[in-house]
Amino acid sequence: MYIQRELERKVLEANRFFKAILVIGARQVGKSTMLRHLAGDEGRTYVTMDNELDRQLALTDPVLFFQTYRPPILIDEIQKAPNLLNHIKLMCDESEERGRFWLTGSQRKKLMERSQETLAGRLGILRLYGLSQREKAGYLNAPYLDFSMASLTERQQHMPENDIRAVFHHIWQGSFVDVQNASAEMAQLWYQSYIENYLMADAVNDEGIRDLAGFRRIIRASAALTGQQINYHTLSDAAGVSEPTVKKWLSILQDMDVIYLLEPYSNNELQRLVKTPKLYFCDTGLCAYLSRWLTPDTLREGAASGYYFENYVVMELVKNYAYAPDQALLSYYRDDKAREIDVFVEENGRVHALEIKKSASPDRKAVSAFDVLRKTSLEKGPGGIVCMAPRPFPIDQENLYIPCGLI
To answer: Would you say residue 3 lies in a domain?
Structure first.
């Protein structure tokens, strides 16, 4: 059964505005499924560059490729035949028709650089992540999240009340469509296959990595450090490779949308800020599998549960703003005195400060860390503590207890 995606709204808007659109994201998050669903019966040709014969045709004779597969067309995994972008540019320039080319890709940095250089002004780029909690609940296009009581109360009417077991089942289950109804045994087999057939294969074929054993160790070591500042020395020791190699491989995992790096906040008015990003997994289910948390209960009761809860909240925020009409910049705050704020959300000229706590009634003193903003000229918007509270509730005039299910 098809699960409706929140990005569909943006895709349709972009399709009316751009001559070509590119949807990027990790393997198996549902990019081509969503686009084929949106294409419906319009007769759009579909071709994937995972098919060796079609890929070889695209690489060796792109003119014949487009004689064989005519627009409107959906080309899956375009990064495997990047030379097609030059011909797409020429075909875009021959016509004023919008939405002739729908493209998907799984290598963010390289593909975006190549496509933006080649198709500047012709291409709209969108990113799809795994299923969000709101997509699972069928609640799409919620009011803009500004952390006010009004927006949270409106969302509360459409989402189930917080339940710690349900939240950790969502965290453990992850966001890939294929594992949503899988048993624990089948989910483990699926993730094992995903790692070997996609992550390792792409690492060899697309990135030229030869030390697959070391690359596997880096992925597992990264999973063990989710929700924490990156420690290149620790990862280097765990994987048995040099720190420069660790940095290169983490960059590759970021490009593949396996990991998400939350950058530290930067502002000239606040001095002595750290410069090291925090590491999260784009899919918490994959992270749990890599760390051998084999059931939701063991994950919920385990020593790493707080880190996984933070990972879950951060990625729900990422997905929310990726699909919202207005973008926001996410970061975290930490200074040389170890004062930390889990997330800063900058949108519309305001900063929203958020703490993340795996508790239904966290200590309200946690918001005292937000006082660092009073030393700046920044406009502070509503914020608070994202937690397991059953409903939004005021902490003070500026901050709320924010149920994690409403993000």
So the answer is: no
Q: Residue 150: is it exposed, middle or buried by C-beta count within 10 angstroms (0-12/13-18/19+)?
A: exposed
Residue whose structure tokens are 């420069």: 244
Say which residue the tokens 């620790």 belong to.
234
For residue range 253-287, what is the model confidence (pLDDT) as tens digits?
999 999 999 999 987 766 667 889 999 999 999 99
Burial 88-119 (b: 16+ CB within 10 A, else e): bbebbeeeeebbbbbbbbbbbeebbebbeebb
142 and 117 share one domain: no
The CB density around residue 222, as the number of other CB atoms within 10 Å, is 25
Cross-strand bridge partners of residue 124:
21
Which residues form the domain of 111?
A: 8-127
Beta pairing partners, 280 = 260
Whether residues 140 and 122 share a domain: the answer is no
- What does the buried/exposed string (b/e) look like for 223-233 if buried means 16 or more CB atoms within 10 Å of the residue's CB? bbbbbeebeee
Residue type present at position 342: D
CATH, residue 107: 3.40.50.300
188 and 81, same domain (yes or no): no
* Triad 266, 315, 282: Cα angle to 5°: 105
- Locate 218 and state its tokens: 């880096």
3-class secondary-structure state, position 22: strand
- 163: Cα separation from own chain's centroid: 24
pLDDT in tens, 284-325: 999 999 999 999 999 999 999 999 999 999 999 999 999 999
Task: Select from 128, 143, 101, 164 the least CA-distant residue to 29.
Answer: 128
